[in-house]
Amino acid sequence: METAKNHFFTDISVMLGRSMRHIFRSMDTIITVCITPIAMMLLFVYVLGGAIQTGTDNYVNYLLPGILLMAIASGIAYTAYRLFMDKQRGIFERFHTMPISRSAVLWGHVLTSLVSNAISVLVIILAALIMGFRSSAGILPWLAVAGILALFTLALIWVAAIAGLSAKTMEGASAFSYPLIFLPFISSAFVPTESMPSVVRAFAENQPVTSIVNAIRALLSGQPVGNEIWVALAWCVGILLVAYFFAMRVYKKRV
Amino acid sequence: MEKAIEVKGLRKSFKDTEVLKGVDFEVKRGEIFALLGSNGAGKTTAVKILTTLLKPDRGSVTVNGFDVTSNPDHVRQAISLTGQFAAVDEVLTGRENLIMIAKLRYLKSPRLVADDLLRRFGLTDAADRRASTYSGGMRRRLDIALSLVGKPQIIFLDEPTTGLDPEARIEAWKIVKELADGGTTVLLTTQYLEEAEQLADRIAILHEGRIIASGTLSDLKKLFPTAKVEYVEKQPTLEEIFLSIVGKKEAK
């Protein structure tokens, strides 16, 4: 036991190095997690944006939080895929018969997902800056935004872990992310919820994306965040705890 | 310690199916031990328990003097497993695969260890190619090389030659023999009688969750009535024909 614990950080850094190589060697991953959200942003700002009434003069500012959430949702689909492949190919078995920390194997994937999503979020923010995104927010609100996004990523990572570890096929492993990528459309991410018919509006206003988007938008524009941030945090922590519980059960049972 | 592995009264069920129904066997240090059985006999389950991947329901399993249930970390220090499907990271190159495992075994100079194993397994030329471009035989060689990183004392090979072409199979046999010559204990499972006959010092036949016979090849032969001398014209097997034709081609 001792050896395993002493080497936890060595193990986890080897695991991180390994999965980061996987990401940078896969054009497909880079396109999906960075280029697709930027293309969406271009489409919404320069094609559809002119017809969308948000009550703000800078639509990029309005749009960015939702685009970031979409990028994270598509990014964690690859986490599920990588977990699935490791299980399928017997890589987990190889690691688990070695005297290394068992949890490092799983946490390596979690850390990779956090790091890679942070990179794609940064790239997208840079693209948004070029397109005219401006924020008056200081260091603290930015840190709060980073915290919310990290918590959201972590919550979805465990959802991805359930899917990746219990899936029977590669398609099954990443299919769970489609509804997640779609959720921002039925939220305040692209248009104000007031413009929606009542049933849709009720759904939109009570699903996690809206509160997270509103909280981030308020933080970035220097507005008071009000209750929205607590609702957003509650959603993230709630999803995280439930998904973590089930993911660990699947991990212990199947791997 | 004389015994590398000791298994007593091992039982394991999955839901309602009893896969292992009381298995006993011992493996001596430095020998090649073959667990022979058809598909579904329970070979892989037995190997997974011996390598700490699964927990036994009942019975005692000792590997390198440590109990697999109460002391799995000590067991893991001494073993390595080459599973049924080559567990190599296909996105990484052969060299990166070896370096990764060397780092996880906390070796001092992972690069040198990798270079050495690449040379030993004839993978130096392919070292910097991604493992996904390797042939089945090369992949299996890399897989076995990964298992040798850090020189574990006991190596488990679960059907090491399943899915390999005849040449790659003979190559794998050669590697296993060299390992045993170097003092490593090898437990392998196989469904090929010939493989057990070629490689193993001792053989145990696992059938429907029980060991129904075990011993050296000559022990097992004694279970049959004494040999009658018969004169038969020996026809070459297709494998012998294949190998001799292929061998000729390569000689040219």
Automatic annotation (TrEMBL), chain A:
Pfam families: ABC2_membrane (PF01061). It is a multi-pass membrane protein. Keywords: Cell membrane, Membrane, Transmembrane, Transmembrane helix, Transport. The keyword Membrane applies. It is found in: Cell membrane; Membrane. Residues 28-254 form the ABC transmembrane type-2 domain. The chain crosses the membrane at residues 30-52, 64-84, 105-133, 139-163, 175-193, 229-247. Belongs to the ABC-2 integral membrane protein family. This is Transport permease protein. It comes from Cohnella silvisoli.
TrEMBL record, chain B:
SMART domains: AAA. Keywords: ATP-binding, Nucleotide-binding, Transport. InterPro entries: AAA+_ATPase, ABC_transporter-like_ATP-bd, ABC_transporter-like_CS, ABC_transporter_ATP-binding, P-loop_NTPase. Residues 5-233 form the ABC transporter domain. It comes from the Bacteria. One of its GO terms (molecular function) is ATP binding. Belongs to the ABC transporter superfamily. This is ATP-binding cassette domain-containing protein. It comes from Cohnella silvisoli.
